[in-house]
Design a protein that fits this description.
mainly alpha; 5 helices; single chain
């Protein structure tokens, strides 16, 4: 009977460890998604500024060179908060619908906003990961103690 209790407690603690690992991975993935959008918008800006490439051709080129464009779009709804999603949705809605200067201003604005939000998330990352690990492990430990 004691062996089963010990095994159960170890399983609960391992679930807490896995949950903490998953939450840390989630926080790091959010930074990668922001980096992906910043790089994509920078690429679009370069294509508009230097080559006056139409938006359809830019996106076709992105699909051929960057195979993760559809996954980047899917990850946006999972990893980014409402303000960041709203900013990206506004960019995707408004890009290609104006003159060159307007599009460049839109790209510059979105790049700067996303960089600020990325910097804010990056400074909060150590605190958020410590909090996630501490909460996950403490909840698992408390559950194991209660069930003992």
């Amino acid at each position: 009977m004691l062996a089963i209790k010990i095994l159960g407690a170890l399983l609960i603690l391992s679930v807490g460890g896995i949950a903490s690992f998953a939450s840390v991975r989630y926080e790091k993935k959010a930074l990668l998604v922001l980096d992906g959008w910043i790089d994509l918008i920078r690429h679009i800006r370069t294509q508009i500024d230097c080559y006056l490439t139409p938006l359809d051709e830019i996106l076709d080129g992105c699909l051929h060179h960057a195979k993760d464009l559809p996954s980047l779009y899917r990850c946006t709804s999972v990893y980014l908060d409402g303000n960041e999603r709203h900013l990206i949705e506004g960019f995707t809605r408004d890009v290609g619908a104006g003159y060159r200067e307007e599009q460049l201003r839109l790209c510059d604005f979105c790049i700067e906003e996303l960089r600020c939000r990325r910097a804010s998330r990056a400074t909060q990352l150590p605190m958020r990961t410590r909090l996630a690990v501490t909460l996950s492990v403490c909840i698992a430990l408390g559950t194991a103690i209660l069930l003992w």
